[in-house]
Amino acid sequence: MKNKTNLGIYIHLPFCATICPYCDFYKIQYSFNLEKKYIKSLIKEIESTSTYGYKIDTIYFGGGTPSISARYLPQIMSSIKKVHNISATAEISCEANPCSLNDYTINFIKESEINRLSIGIQSFNQNNLKSLGRTHTNDRVISAISKVRKFGINNISIDLLIGSPFQNISDINTYMEYIKEINPQHLSAYILQIEKNTPFNNPTIIQSIPNDDKIYEIYIKTVESLNKLGLIQYEISNFSKPHFKSKHNLKYWSGKEYIGFGTSSHSFFKGSRYKNISNISEYILYPLDNKIITDLSPNSLNEYIIFRLRLVTGIKISRILPYINNSKLFYIHLENLKKSKLINKFDLTISLTPKGFLISNQIINSILKFIE
Is the pLDDT of residue 371 over 70? Predict the structure, then answer.
């Protein structure tokens, strides 16, 4: 049987050495005994799920802090290979914390055939790092990345936060000096969101965060500075050198199929979107019986608009024009967005400018109002 299509795999490893106060992803404090039980259930789910007819071209280990569970990565990869058809050129990514990257963990990462690391740095300002609950130093980051490259892993992505407590636009100059030294192939710069169920959702923290005008300045300067370093923006929060875009994350934004394993993981597979329960105890007991359907008719026009407008390439006007309820008013609306420098020239496509990305949800909602 010919391969039906390419498919991405996401593996969720929820364990963290310390819990960052701003993080809203499903994670738990590291436990040796719980980790062992979890991996056993995770492998059972992986080996009990058929992807026959699909070619796995991306694998992504997320968390949590997957590098903490590095000793299990070869075992997990072995289970994936056992039942899933992995492409010889697959992009295999793993999230990592600088403090968990040492000879011991990197050796397991390398043994697992992981060829891309996404390292959570968040800031190069020590005061910012402290407020974010991060325990590493800039020197630790530099030495960890140097060590990773000595092991032959040369596709490096780093994560930064925009709008962290007490951050100033002057910090960006310092950031760029470190980025120039690290020379990553990819960089993600996320605007900090205060999530309800996190310790950051308190008045003291909220007052210490830059206001909207400052965040705008920081974001625009970050985009311009990264572009000058050869890290070109291709998505709201993502920048890369040529040929180093995140193939796995592009699946999410381009409406491609992927399957998630582990507690709290999401999937878009065989015509449905579903997720695993966000409860590690229940997942360990019932790894094959905890899926919740979230959408039985994915890849709608609305999804196309929402996801594709995250990308610099934007959406094709020809794709949405047949569904516009008032094309005259629609084009007037687009012209107003262009005059406000929120979208680029709209002849064949609609795409957001860096300024537009900052209010992307508002722009997307304004476009969706014209859809019948």
Answer: yes
219: which residues sit within 8 A by CB, 6+ positions away?
162, 189, 191, 354, 357, 358
Q: Which amino acid is at 294?
A: T
Q: Residue 335 above 90 pLDDT?
A: yes
pLDDT at res. 300: 87
Show me where the domains of the chain are located.
5-253, 301-368
Please count the CA atoms within 13 angstroms of the CA of 234 that sit on its side-chain side. Answer: 18
Structure confidence by residue, pLDDT tens digits, 164-214: 998 999 999 999 999 999 999 999 999 999 998 899 999 999 999 999 999
- CA–CA separation, 64 and 279 (whole Å): 14
Query: pTM for the whole thing?
Result: 0.95
Tell me which residue of 135, 217, 127 sits closest to 164, measured CA to CA.
127
Its CATH class, for the domain covering 301-368, is mainly alpha
Its sign, for the CA torsion 98, 101, 106, 109, is negative
Task: Taking residues 92-118, report their average pLDDT.
Answer: 97
Handedness of CA 332, 333, 336, 338 (dihedral sign): negative
Contact 28, 280 (CB under 8 A): yes
- CATH top-level class for 5-253? alpha beta
